[in-house]
Write a structure and sequence with these properties.
The complex is a heterodimer of chains A (about 190) and B (about 575). Chain A is built from 6 helices and 5 strands, in the order ααβαββαββαα. Chain A is of the alpha+beta class. Classes of the chains: A alpha+beta (about 190), B alpha+beta (about 575). The complex binds iron/sulfur cluster (2 copies).
Chain lengths: ~190, ~575
């Protein structure tokens, strides 16, 4: 066997005494450390009964936004889709018809808007790209699912609840949103 | 006194005016084109002054526009050498002609050229004559084509559906079988039969999908052959496809423990090309986040290293602390391991309200933990017995193999790019470079543990002296432009549209960054031909160089020692394979 003599440098390798070789002291020390930690505060939580809080800027599941009157903000400009590094967003644009002004804020809107959560890396570039404040990332994450198609989120999954029709659900969703805006404006 | 000027002059006089062409680059690294026939002579000459082969890569030049009078070439091989005495790089380029050109190998001069040349062969089909074993290194042996050539598709959807029929599965399996004779390994010596042991690709001790084949004489390692590439995602190819801006999330995933540190290495190169000056506040925010990530990465290393050696508890305690850092990172960036938070020209958002309290709490909390870990791990006699005097290399050997970072500092060389070639405002911070002297596994651990303390010092200084000002530079190429105006005025909205849909157009040129990442020196060498995407993105990662050295330092030790060595080297496979 070739030895490492030409590269060996002096290091402290005193042979261990018989007592040291028993490693008893170290084993006892190790047990003591483990024991001590039993009485410390637990670092884990019982998911899913308990959920941890995310920070206000957490980048989770996308939400499509409405304005105060409940009209959809998105104008289907497609900036989010081109900004998306993972190519997770697809959409189809449609023209707003007379009489639909209460549904869509702009003359053009997204008839179909899909995000593939299996592709999405939650980088937040779509939110940064959007000129209409129409898409933002919220403080939850996509729940697990058994099927691929369960991860394709359409408009019905992404849209924030209607402020007039479902005020409670909207308030709940807005709660985090408002917190977020407050954060943004105070900076 | 030699400097790069006199070295250039010497090259001129030795190889003639025609053989040597000097190129001006934005990053001020002296760049010299030499002819293919002279490369060995040039490398031999340079080795006296530039002992470290820092990086070697190929570039497919065939589609490049705006060459600005550069010598003609179909392919170039680019060598980056580093001199510690001059504290400078030199970039040597060799232009090659033809579809599948060849060039003499410099492995006889710089041993660590071995893997780099294999990579260039794998990626471009450039043959290196005289290379001891020129085979693919990252792609499967059965791969058709060379991925970084411009004609090779970048998307799976351009390649037709993937099918694994039975015969193909057999071929693939056969290709994976290790054939000792191909590596010049004998099945037996005069007095012993060797055993070939396959470790990985699924093995907890390899810290990722790495396969190492060991030639064993009893328990002793005679030779080791690492096989990498299982984690290869073509990050360099994607750099040519994504816009300058949308490539940032990809960098997060190179050294996945380093988080924003990867963003920084990439952006420093982009910002050099774009000529953006970063405001002080943005710089300091960047430094603070980077140092938090350094602590984070070292904690993972520390815990798993102890675990490799049989201590099962520390890793849990350390991950708990790491979670505390992630809380800060999440509050600031919105993401955790892949924060994607630095932007061309600054950072994505300003620091949130109350960030200082979070950081302060951590700065107060962590030193006590470090002391405890010191007792728990570093002073443990079992730990010492497994690491002291194991995996030794000297400073000369380290440089020979391209080792940077803690591995180099553990052999007594005080070299830290943050101090020696400061970037992003590191010159304003007060910290020390910890070193150790024996270059064994234990000393590498000592250095990293002390580095955490130093990082904490830097974080504290950021906390106490966070400058006021902009978090993003006021420059037309800053991406995305500060959004406050986008919603109101049409001018910025148009810029925003262009910037987002095409991405910023970075002026033509070449630049390389160099940072002291968590595991050693990390660089992005970017070539722009004035487009919305990079023409060539080359990522030099420390782990690649470090793993290449493992067979050399592992020889003669036992299998159990090899796991100490692997743990002490601190690599991640994503950083090796890119
Ligand atoms: S979400 Fe925003 S960026 Fe995307 S299409 Fe709608 S308006 Fe445009
Ligand atoms: S978060 Fe990123 S990956 Fe996900 S949809 Fe938005 S831009 Fe695409």
């Amino acid at each position: 066997m070739q030895h490492l003599t030409n590269r060996a440098k002096p290091v402290d390798r005193k042979p261990m005494t018989a007592l040291e070789k028993l490693y008893l002291w170290n084993i006892a020390k190790g047990m003591w450390i483990t024991l001590k930690h039993i009485f410390k505060r637990k670092a884990t939580i019982n998911f899913p009964e308990q959920r941890r809080e995310f920070s206000p800027v957490f980048r989770g599941l996308q939400v499509l936004n409405r304005d105060a009157e409940g009209r959809e903000n998105c104008t289907a400009c497609g900036l989010c889709a081109v900004a998306c590094p993972a190519e997770a967003i697809t959409m189809e644009a449609a023209e707003r018809q007379p009489g639909e002004e209460h549904l869509y804020r702009e003359e053009k809107y997204a008839a179909k808007y899909e995000i593939n959560m299996l592709r999405c890396i939650f980088c937040g570039l779509c939110e940064e790209a959007c000129p209409k404040d129409a898409v933002y990332l919220s403080e939850t994450f996509a729940p697990s699912n058994y099927q691929r198609k369960g991860f394709i989120y359409g408009k019905e999954d992404l849209l924030i609840p209607h402020p007039k029709l479902e005020p409670e659900a909207y308030q709940q969703a807005l709660g985090t949103r408002a917190k977020r805006q407050e954060k943004a404006s105070s900076n | 006194m030699h400097d790069s000027k006199s070295i250039l002059l010497h090259l001129r006089t030795t190889f003639g005016e025609d053989g040597v062409y000097e190129q001006k680059t934005i990053d001020q690294i002296p760049t010299v084109w030499v002819s293919k026939n002279n490369i060995i002579a040039v490398a031999t000459y340079l080795k006296t002054f530039y002992p470290l082969l820092y990086d070697l890569c190929g570039v497919d030049e065939r589609d490049r526009s705006r060459k600005n009078g550069l010598p003609s070439a179909d392919f170039t091989v680019v060598y980056h050498f580093f001199s510690f005495d001059l504290n400078d790089f030199i970039r040597i380029k060799v232009g090659l002609h033809g579809e599948y050109p060849s060039i003499p190998s410099i492995t006889s001069v710089y041993v660590n050229a071995n893997w780099y040349e294999r990579e260039a062969y794998d990626m471009f089909g450039i043959t290196f004559e005289g290379h001891p074993h020129l085979t693919r290194i990252l792609m499967p042996l059965t791969w058709k084509g060379h991925p970084l050539r411009k004609e090779h598709p970048a998307r799976a959807t351009e390649m037709g559906p993937y099918q694994l029929y039975d015969e193909k599965a057999d071929i693939e399996m056969e290709a994976l079988r290790f054939k000792p004779e191909e590596w010049g390994l004998k099945e037996h010596s005069d007095d012993a039969d060797f055993m070939f042991l396959n470790i990985g690709p699924q093995h907890p001790g390899t810290h990722g999908v790495l396969r190492i084949i060991l030639q064993l004489d009893g328990e002793d390692i005679v030779e080791a052959v690492p096989e990498i590439g299982f984690h290869h995602r073509g990050a360099e190819k994607m750099g040519e496809r994504q816009s300058w801006h949308t490539y940032i999330p990809y960098t997060d995933r190179i050294d996945y423990l380093g988080g924003v540190m990867n963003n920084l290495a990439y952006l420093l190169a982009v910002e050099k090309l774009a000529g953006i000056e970063i405001p002080d506040r943005a710089k300091t925010i960047r430094v603070m986040l980077c140092e938090l990530f350094r602590i984070n990465s070292h904690l993972v290393w520390f815990g798993t290293f102890a675990q490799d050696l049989g201590q099962l508890s520390p890793v849990f305690y350390m991950f708990t602390d790491r979670e505390k850092i992630f809380d800060i990172i999440e509050a600031v960036c919105g993401g955790r391991m892949h924060p994607n938070w630095f932007r061309i020209g600054g950072v994505a958002q300003d620091l949130p309200n109350g960030w200082d309290k979070l950081v302060r709490d951590f700065v107060n909390y962590f030193p006590k933990q470090l002391r405890e870990y010191d007792k728990m791990v570093m002073r443990n006699s079992l730990f010492k017995a497994r690491t002291r005097g194991i995996g030794i290399y000297t400073r000369e050997e380290a440089i020979e193999w391209g080792v940077t970072g803690a591995g180099l500092r553990a052999c007594g060389y005080e070299w830290d790019f943050r101090k020696k070639r400061p970037y992003s405002g590191y010159e304003n911070f007060d910290f020390e470079i910890p070193i150790a002297h024996n270059g064994d596994c234990y000393d590498r651990a000592v250095v990293r543990v002390e580095e955490m303390r130093q990082s904490l010092r830097i974080v504290e200084q950021c906390l106490n002296n966070m400058p006021e000002g902009l978090y993003k530079a006021d420059h037309p190429l800053t991406t995305p432009p500060i959004k406050k105006y986008t919603m109101q005025d049409i001018e910025t909205l148009i810029t925003h549209f262009l910037n987002v849909s095409w991405g910023p157009v970075i002026p033509p040129g070449e630049a390389m960054s160099c940072i002291e990442a968590t595991k050693g020196a990390n660089s992005y060498y970017l070539v722009s031909d004035g487009n919305t995407a990079s023409y060539r993105t080359r990522i030099r990662t420390p782990s690649f160089a470090h793993l290449q050295m493992v067979p050399y330092i592992g020889k003669g030790y036992t299998v159990a020692d090899l796991l100490s060595i692997l743990g002490s080297v601190d690599y991640v496979l994503a950083d090796i394979d890119r």
